[in-house]
Specification:
- By secondary structure, the protein is an alpha/beta fold.
- The protein has a single domain, classed as Rossmann fold, CATH 3.40.50.1820.
- Helix content is 38%, strand content 21%.
- The chain contains eight helices and eight strands, in the order H-H-E-E-E-H-E-H-H-E-H-E-E-H-E-H.
- It has an eight-stranded mixed sheet, with helices on both faces.
- Helix 6 links the parallel strand 5 and strand 6.
- The radius of gyration is 17 Å and the shape is globular.
- The two termini are 31 Å apart.
- 43% of the residues are buried.
- The N terminus is likely disordered.
Length: 252
């Protein structure tokens, strides 16, 4: 475990360590979407009779990794059921930048397939261990863009949270069907979606009458929450996680 991960995760797990009754279970979960097999990760506290709600996590462009599993466990330590969904497929094992670009690019190019996989994953959440009817969806980078895709599709969820995601709205889409709050957590120095993109998104949400808020972390670059990356920013990571947990406390 690298030092940045230790510094952040130690505090996140302090509550778990202090709670003797906590029984965090983290396990793979397979599900079917349109005949294809997908494999996500579920994490929950088996000692809780009633979880506080369900949080779906959408992975970055490299697929479901230990990163999503750790974030899921951090949410389980807060009393939520977390489900890191899979948008690539169980048998897909991306191995580098070319694979990441190809897999994420294919979904960006085929919005119908993108939305079908999101819809199927959201439906699968009803059957996971510790499932609850109230659900928030959150995602990182590519996953942040996927969250906004889900919001525009009008899924009946309790909230949408994008961490340093792609913020652009594809031609022909809008937020007229979005019926739950949207939270955007973004770095001011993000070269992928800059402050002009954020302003445009907020204008679109305002025009559509969608409840929304944004937290901007000054000087933070793209992927500021990804442990060990060149963009990692401990202060922005802590601040965005605190904003996320506060959003969940208010929403679920």
């Amino acid at each position: 475990m690298n030092t940045t991960l230790t510094a952040f995760a130690a505090g996140a797990f302090a509550t778990l360590a202090a709670t003797a009754s906590a029984q965090i279970v983290t396990e793979p979960y397979e599900y079917i979407v349109n005949g294809a097999v997908y494999e996500g990760v579920v994490s929950y506290n088996a000692a809780l009779e009633t979880p506080r709600g369900t949080v779906l996590l959408v992975h970055d462009w490299d697929g479901v990794t230990e990163y999503e599993a750790l974030r899921a466990e951090m949410l389980a330590a807060q009393g939520y059921t977390a489900f890191a969904i899979d948008l690539y497929g169980r048998d897909v094992d991306p191995q580098g930048m070319q694979d990441y670009q190809r897999l994420s690019g294919a979904l960006y190019a085929d919005r119908a397939e993108f939305q079908a996989r999101l819809a199927g994953s959201i439906e699968a959440a009803a059957n996971i261990p510790g499932a609850t009817p109230n659900i928030v969806i959150a995602g990182y980078c590519f996953g942040g863009a996927a969250v906004l895709e889900a919001a525009r599709a009008g899924h009946d969820l309790a909230g949408f949270v994008s961490f340093h995601g792609g913020l652009g709205t594809p031609e022909g889409q809008d937020y007229s069907a979005t019926s739950a709050p949207v939270l955007v957590l973004h770095g001011s120095a993000d070269p992928v979606s800059g402050m002009a993109d954020l302003a445009t998104l907020l204008d679109e949400l305002q025009a559509a009458g969608v409840t929304h808020s944004a937290q901007v972390y000054g000087g933070a670059h793209h992927s500021f929450t990804v442990f060990g990356s060149r963009d990692y920013d401990l202060a922005a990571d802590r601040g965005s996680w605190a904003a996320f947990v506060n959003f969940l406390n208010e929403t679920l």
